[in-house]
Here is the input.
Amino acid sequence: MPAKNPEMPLIPINPRASEAYFKSLAENLPHFMAILDPENFKIKSINRAQDGFTVEDIIGKEIFDFILIENKEIYIQKLEELKQTGNTLVLDVESASKRYPSGKAWYHANISIIYGEENSVEAILVVYEDISEKKLKEIENINARERINAIINNTSDIICSIDNNYNLLEFNNTFEQIIKKGFGIELISGKPIFEFIDPQRHESLKVIYARVQQGETCNDVSRFLTKSGLVLYNETSFNPIYNSEKQISGISIFSKDITERVKNEQKTTAALKEKEVLLAEIHHRIKNNLAMVSGLLELQEMNINNTEAKEALAQSRKRIKSTALIHELLYRSESFQNINLKDYLSELFQHLKINDKVQLVLKGNDVNLNLTTAMPLGLMINEIMLNSFKHSHKDGTEGKTEIELISNSNSLVINYCDCKGNFPVHIDFKNSKTTGLALIHTFAAQLDGSIELICNAPPKYKIQIPTNDNQ
Here is the structure.
């Protein structure tokens, strides 16, 4: 017979009065309470049944009928040891349950011997508390942590945290492998993070850390040189970590390897630079080729005596110069996509004017045009200026040419006035067969625009063309 446990008070029970005594005691307890037969571990009495069962379902059944089969041998061993030693047994029991979808419930049990007369083992008393809700919450938290850990450790990004003294707290597998492979260093929690970072980065990082400790979120792009000489680029986010008292207790660090992105950007930049050089060379060569054509026409002009032919060659040479001027402006500009219209008109005027007494007044908005629009528009204005100088300023007197540019999101309006002379009233501006006017209307149609002669004396023109995002 086992000796009584001196630390545990005995519960003396008369076998004939045990059931009444148990019921009286159990009514005042908030927990479940059961008495087992010490020989076969069948339930003799229970104060109430757990959800899904009735007392009738439980009385007379082995307690192991309500315990998961995989744990049965362990609990039998524990109860046999209890009968031998008399020591109170405290353990958490995993039981079958109809209450939870998992089919399991958990109880915190205190199991002790009830002694009868002459210290005989009368029964086994089990007092147990349902801890299922608490256990399920723990399991949920564990599962959540495992899911988070799986996400953190399966990402290719670096994730780590440091305390306010810049000591490494936690880090994921990616950070550990990168440091080990790239720098030959083993990451260790509790060590200063600066032991794992290039010394040249220490001061700039301290500045960032100080800002984060004031509550800021900071982003940074860094360049790293590995032990093998490989250059890496990382885009990193630094965020404050708040404790339960809403005080900043550390810094979380999320860093993404952007080496491939940076290399691609560098390749793109180099390709664009090469393209710009090629475009500059193309525009330069076109300008030179047009200048050569213009020079050949000038030689031809010098070697003929026919006045009309000389005039035709001169006009053609000036049209070619107008085209070459566009390529020259593109060659000289920082962008090969757009031409500043005011700059073009100013240089075109200087090229075509027949004397210094004629002045140009440019007013209105700054307008940039792409090559597709600038070329026909420039040639159109070239024809208008040629007519102005040919008919209004050929006597060498003073004069003025006014050009106003008005632009909005939908259209460009150019108001042109040579402020002297007259447009011949006998010439039909819209239907004239002259080369100059035919070219003017051709270029207007090419631009999906229009040109109007709104006044004959002095000649005033209104040019209107649609604009879009490409201009």
Summary: Residues 51 and 390 are 109 Å apart (CA to CA). The domain at 155-257 is CATH 3.30.450.20 (Beta-Lactamase). The first strand starts at residue 32 and ends at 36.
